[in-house]
Amino acid sequence: MTTFGFIGLGAMGRHMARHLVQRGLPVTVFDSNVQAVDELVRIGAARGASARDVGEHAQVVMVCLPTPDIVERVATGEDGVAGASAVKVFVDHSTTGPTVTRRLAAALAQHGIQALDAPLAGGVAGAESGALSVMVSGDASAFATARPAFEAFAGDIAYLGAQPGLGQTLKLVNNMIAGSALVTAAEAVLFGVKAGIPAGTILDVLCRSATARGFAVQTLLADKVLSRKFDFGFRMDLMRKDLRLALGEAEAVGAPMFASAVVKQFFDTAVANGAGSDDMTRVVHQLEKLAGATIEQVQGSDEQR
């Protein structure tokens, strides 16, 4: 049986690793958060002492980490996975961008390690339920080797081809749409609120509208913002990072980014104001302040959700 390793037991990674263990796959885990490792060890995972140690015990090493710098350090830095003897396939579930992915794939190839970029969509809820979407590119044989792990935590697996970075490009496309749709939808709802329609009524109608309903309206605004829970599970600074990556990669291939460049400024401002660790849905606060109105359920009103 193929052995697996998982590095990065954060908001999503801990659930993904849990699904591997529950599927009966042999998994060695590592994270700087010892408590997160302890939780996985209690249900049957093996404890790794370092990133390299994980690679000494696992043929397929999977990582889910917050920034490209950390991914590269874990992969090829001192005490990184590349120096290990067992690892044959390195799978990056982080959002690092295609440029970093191609550089990393070339570096790992020098150590005889095949690289897959396999970024994710679906958020924390998808990771928890095992219903993530995973967008994979890299060698087909490496994909076949890693696929049993993908099947443990993903409801949709898209293999995009052998060229490194295609998965990363599609993930940036996904997050560009998510971030832009959130800002645009919030702006539109606030227009309706300022004109005299309760936010709950607006979103109730939009959630039934064939032309307006969708992720931004139904999941982000109607569920996370209207309730003032703001708990989608994706940090503001990470969305900003992804938009910055997208703009850079788009410029490299000559794709226009007029709208996305404006949207990024909302996340830039939020991070500059100290909200980087906040949930990304709190970006609507900036629009609410400008509008002098909020997207929230009116207490004691007759509006129905």
Automatic annotation (TrEMBL):
Where would I find the 3-hydroxyisobutyrate dehydrogenase-like NAD-binding domain in this sequence?
A: 165-285
What are the entry keywords?
A: NAD, Oxidoreductase
Q: Can you give the residue ranges of the 6-phosphogluconate dehydrogenase NADP-binding domain?
A: 4-161
> Which GO molecular function annotations are given, in alphabetical order?
NAD binding; NADP binding; oxidoreductase activity, acting on the CH-OH group of donors, NAD or NADP as acceptor
**Active-site residues?**
171
* InterPro entries, alphabetized: 3-OH-isobutyrate_DH-rel_CS (IPR002204), 6-PGluconate_DH-like_C_sf (IPR008927), 6PGD_dom2 (IPR013328), 6PGDH_NADP-bd (IPR006115), HIBADH-like_NADP-bd (IPR029154), HIBADH-related (IPR015815), NAD(P)-bd_dom_sf (IPR036291)
Superkingdom, natural source? Bacteria
Give one GO biological process term. organic acid catabolic process
Presence of keyword Methyltransferase: no
> Record's PANTHER family?
3-HYDROXYISOBUTYRATE DEHYDROGENASE, MITOCHONDRIAL (PTHR22981:SF7), 3-HYDROXYISOBUTYRATE DEHYDROGENASE-RELATED (PTHR22981)
Return the protein name: Hydroxyacid dehydrogenase
Q: Which source organism does the UniProt entry give?
A: Cupriavidus nantongensis
What lineage does UniProt assign to this protein's organism? Bacteria, Pseudomonadati, Pseudomonadota, Betaproteobacteria, Burkholderiales
